[in-house]
Amino acid sequence: MKKYYVTGNTAKGLVNYISSNLQNIKQTVILKHPSDSLKTSLIQQVIDSYQSNYEIEVLLSALSSKYLDGVIIREKSLAVICDRVAKNNKIPNAVEIDCSLFTKK
Length: 105
Prior knowledge:
The chain has 105 residues and is α/β, with parallel strands linked by helices. The chain has one domain (2-102). The chain contains three helices and eight strands.
């Protein structure tokens, strides 16, 4: 399992390398929700489901060590990322999922 950052707050402002990390990925799911905790929980469930059979790349969050920005499973050509990381990036073949559709109000 690889763990790394694709975004960072630097002296020159926010940098975001998600587009280059998603090259050759055919399926990208963008999780939309105001709660970083909910998105992290969903990403962790994807990691738990696939880590025993696939090489996983975990995208760490520059916001806090308690959050994740996403997961990439190259063997399945699949990425699941949070909306904050996808913001202002053109990600081909991405599907946005509004996570509030699956939460109780």
